[in-house]
Design a protein that fits this description.
CATH architecture: 3-Layer(aba) Sandwich
Order of helices and strands: HHHEEEHEE
Strand order of the largest sheet: 1-2-3-4-5
Number of helices: 4
Number of strands: 5
CATH class: Alpha Beta
Strand content: 35-45%
Helix content: 25-40%
Shape: globular
Largest sheet: 5 strands, mixed
Number of domains: 1
CATH topology: Trna Endonuclease, Chain: A, domain 1
């Protein structure tokens, strides 16, 4: 028996069971593009998209005035499983905070006001819905 069969774990099936794949990835990219446009329309300057480091990823890093926003984007096809903002777990928040700290150190930014936002993008009855929660969680 291979390790996969012995453990009962089939990575391809596990991914399919969670609804992951090309469709979900495309939905996420679409939501991130919509969120970035939403932020630009509200006076934010996008500094980074999908910033990655060893600690994780932040979907959007944006600045408006003296405030730097680290933005998690959650995209939903429907509200059946709750809002996107409800899906940002404590574990995910910690990962975003560690990634943001790394970004600030990398850029040598020591004096700036930082905030952790969540932008939820979804559709209801065919209409696009965007919810921007400023300061959705704190470090």
């Amino acid at each position: 028996m291979t390790g996969e069969a012995a453990s009962g774990c089939n990575p391809a099936r596990r991914t399919a069971d969670r609804g992951m794949g090309a469709g979900r990835a495309q939905l996420g990219r679409t939501g991130e593009a919509i969120a970035a446009r939403h932020l630009r329309e509200r006076g934010y300057r996008i500094l980074a998209l999908n910033y990655r480091c060893r600690y994780g990823e932040v979907d959007i890093i944006a600045r408006r005035g003296s405030t730097l926003a680290f933005v998690e984007v959650k995209t939903r096809r429907s509200a059946r499983y709750g809002s996107g903002a409800e899906a940002v777990s404590a574990r995910k928040q910690g990962q975003i905070i560690r990634t943001a700290t790394h970004y600030l150190q990398e850029k040598a930014w020591t004096e700036c006001e930082c905030r952790f936002d969540v932008v939820s993008v979804g559709w209801q009855n065919g209409a696009r819905m965007i919810e921007h929660l400023e300061a959705a969680f704190t470090a």
